[in-house]
């Protein structure tokens, strides 16, 4: 059954998550004013799936049941599916203007479909069937899964088993007849408290000595022993001020959390990797490549920022200036270049032995590398066009004040026919996207999400066939011996 937004919200209410924010337990996660906009962003992934005009992008046919499902729970069955996934990212980013969080679970499911199949083939295990049973459960209930990879990592110069504190990477601490007990944490978890399920994967490739850390499994988000500690975002407490336009994006937001596993029991039927350290690296690489494709989302957020920049230029009476027009062209050129990358890595995808379609990893990494740069340049241009008022603007309360409101109105009016409030709202949106809560998603997450820039550079260097390139050059200038 495909849930709608209301059913999704109701389903979250049934969970009993242990969430902390500002040092206190959050009483109702769904109703919390800081968390709720992020819940609304995920809810839109459910809502748009029911709208006929978005059906091609937002839904797919399950290869397991033959039923129509939300694409966020789908295992890609063709190159066309991969391309639709990139389009879905852009669409959702453009509708929310933030991180809508649901991609991590989709990417974890697709990566696990391949890795569990390959582990079974080498080791004669039975993970793939377990995984398919789990996937059936996720698809039938239209669940949101948090795909959790990043460990705190402690001292970066040491592997997991040599850390001063052995919990710096999530690990198996006990093996029982009916399952395992795990301890550790996952950091920066996007959408964690809006998820029904949490899927754990290792964060780096591992050797025999790190065997206890090579573990992958899925749990209900409210399983005993899991605690969520919400990350702060710049300007987050503006959301406590009520319905003020100072929030910038008055509809949606994203969130990240530190997720702690304090000796949590996982039944065997939910375990997808257990000490097969030789497959930790593969799972990391496959999840990361899918998630690097998912950064199609930033193209959609870029659409919003470009629209905001054009709007403020018009409100200011500056839209006809040739340098403004040129900056808008530059923003579009950069944003569409990003779009090329996420479409290309999908269009060049291929089928893996288990049947799942996988992106071209070189192009997915190139795409994500561009994402670590172009949004910063697009944001710089947006700030250039917006002008300084974006950061010196008094609050909405000053605008409404009987004493000083008249001065704010008088001195911040631009063209006669432009409502002042429209101008101020757009400025707050640009502030939100480039400095406020949404800058987490558009800028820093673009830098570090799905792996920091260096991780992509390593992958690019591994994937490029340098010998073939050398041969091309040497052939054309007449070098015949191999060099
Ligand atoms: Fe999805 Fe983008 Fe958020 Fe990652 S950053 S979860 S790809 S919206
Ligand atoms: Fe992300």
Task: Summarize the topology.
Layout: H1 5-13, E1 19-21, E2 24-25, H2 36-47, H3 55-58, E3 59-61, E4 68-70, H4 79-96, H5 103-123, H6 127-141, E5 145-148, E6 171-176, E7 179-190, E8 197-200, E9 215-220, E10 226-230, E11 256-267, E12 271-274, H7 280-294, H8 297-316, H9 322-347, E13 350-351, E14 357-358, H10 361-371, H11 374-386, H12 389-392, H13 396-400, H14 405-412, H15 420-434, H16 437-448, H17 453-463, H18 466-476
Parallel strand pairs: 1-10, 5-8
Antiparallel strand pairs: 1-2, 3-4, 6-7, 7-11, 8-9, 9-12, 10-11, 13-14
Bound molecules: iron/sulfur cluster and fe (iii) ion.
Structural features:
483 residues, alpha+beta, Butyryl-CoA Dehydrogenase, subunit A, domain 2, Butyryl-CoA Dehydrogenase, subunit A, domain 3, 2 domains, six-stranded mixed beta sheet, four-stranded mixed beta sheet, 14 strands, 14% strand, globular, binds iron/sulfur cluster, binds fe (iii) ion
Describe the structure.
The protein has 483 residues and is of the alpha+beta class. The protein folds into 2 domains: 5-277, Butyryl-CoA Dehydrogenase, subunit A, domain 2 (Beta Barrel), CATH 2.40.110; 292-466, Butyryl-CoA Dehydrogenase, subunit A, domain 3 (Up-down Bundle), CATH 1.20.140.10. Helices cover 48% and strands 14% of the residues. The protein has helices spanning 5-13, 36-47, 55-58, 79-96, 103-123, 127-141, 280-294, 297-316, 322-347, 361-371, 374-386, 389-392, 396-400, 405-412, 420-434, 437-448, 453-463, 466-476, and strands at 19-21, 24-25, 59-61, 68-70, 145-148, 171-176, 179-190, 197-200, 215-220, 226-230, 256-267, 271-274, 350-351, 357-358. It has a 6-stranded mixed beta sheet with strand order 2-1-10-11-7-6, with no helix packed on it. Strand 6 (171-176) and strand 7 form a beta hairpin. Helix 1 crosses helix 2, helix 9 runs antiparallel to helix 10 and helix 9 packs antiparallel against helix 11 (374-386). It is globular, with a radius of gyration of 24 Å. The mean pLDDT is 97. Bound molecules: iron/sulfur cluster and fe (iii) ion (FE).
């Amino acid at each position: 059954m495909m849930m709608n937004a209301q059913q999704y919200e109701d389903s979250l209410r049934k969970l009993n998550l242990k969430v902390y924010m500002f040092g206190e337990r959050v009483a109702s996660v769904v109703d919390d004013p800081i968390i709720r906009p992020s819940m609304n962003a995920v809810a839109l992934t459910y809502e748009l799936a029911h709208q006929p005009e978005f059906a091609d992008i937002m839904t797919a046919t399950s290869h397991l049941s033959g039923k129509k499902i939300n694409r966020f729970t789908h295992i890609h069955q063709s190159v066309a599916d991969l391309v639709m996934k990139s389009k879905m990212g852009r669409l959702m980013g453009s509708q929310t203007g933030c991180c809508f969080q649901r991609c991590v679970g989709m990417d974890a499911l697709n990566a696990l479909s391949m890795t569990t199949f390959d582990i079974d083939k080498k080791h004669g295990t039975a993970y793939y069937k377990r995984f398919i049973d789990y996937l059936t459960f996720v698809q039938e209930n239209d669940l949101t899964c948090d795909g959790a990879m990043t460990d705190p990592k402690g001292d970066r110069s040491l592997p997991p088993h040599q850390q001063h504190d052995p919990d710096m990477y999530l690990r198996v601490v006990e093996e029982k007849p009916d399952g395992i007990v795990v301890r550790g944490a996952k950091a920066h978890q996007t959408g964690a408290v809006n998820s029904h399920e949490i899927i754990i994967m290792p964060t780096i490739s591992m050797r025999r000595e790190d065997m206890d850390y090579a573990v992958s499994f899925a749990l209900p988000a409210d399983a005993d022993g899991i605690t969520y500690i919400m990350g702060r975002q710049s300007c987050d407490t503006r959301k406590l001020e009520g319905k003020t336009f100072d929030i910038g994006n008055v509809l949606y937001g994203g969130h990240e959390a530190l997720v702690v596993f304090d000796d949590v029991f996982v039944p065997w039927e939910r375990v997808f990797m257990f000490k097969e350290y030789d497959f930790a690296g593969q799972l990391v690489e496959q999840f990361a490549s899918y998630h690097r494709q998912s950064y199609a989302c930033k193209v959609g957020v870029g659409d919003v920022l470009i629209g905001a920049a054009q709007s403020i230029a018009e409100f200011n009476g500056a839209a006809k200036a040739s340098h403004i027009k040129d900056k808008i062209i530059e923003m579009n050129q950069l944003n569409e270049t990003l779009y090329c990358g996420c479409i290309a890595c999908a269009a060049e995808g291929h089928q893996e032995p288990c049947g799942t379609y996988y992106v071209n990893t070189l192009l997915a990494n190139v795409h994500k590398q561009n994402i670590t740069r172009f949004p910063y340049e697009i944001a710089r241009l947006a700030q250039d066009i917006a002008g300084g008022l974006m950061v010196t603007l008094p609050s909405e309360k000053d605008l409404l004040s009987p004493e000083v409101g008249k001065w704010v109105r008088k001195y911040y009016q631009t063209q006669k026919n432009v409502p002042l409030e429209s101008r101020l709202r757009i400025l707050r949106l640009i502030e939100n996207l480039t400095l406020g809560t949404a800058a987490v998603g558009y800028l820093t997450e673009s830098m570090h999400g799905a792996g920091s820039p260096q991780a992509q550079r390593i992958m690019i260097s591994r994937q490029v066939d340098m010998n073939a390139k050398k041969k091309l050059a040497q052939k054309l200038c007449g070098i015949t011996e191999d060099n």
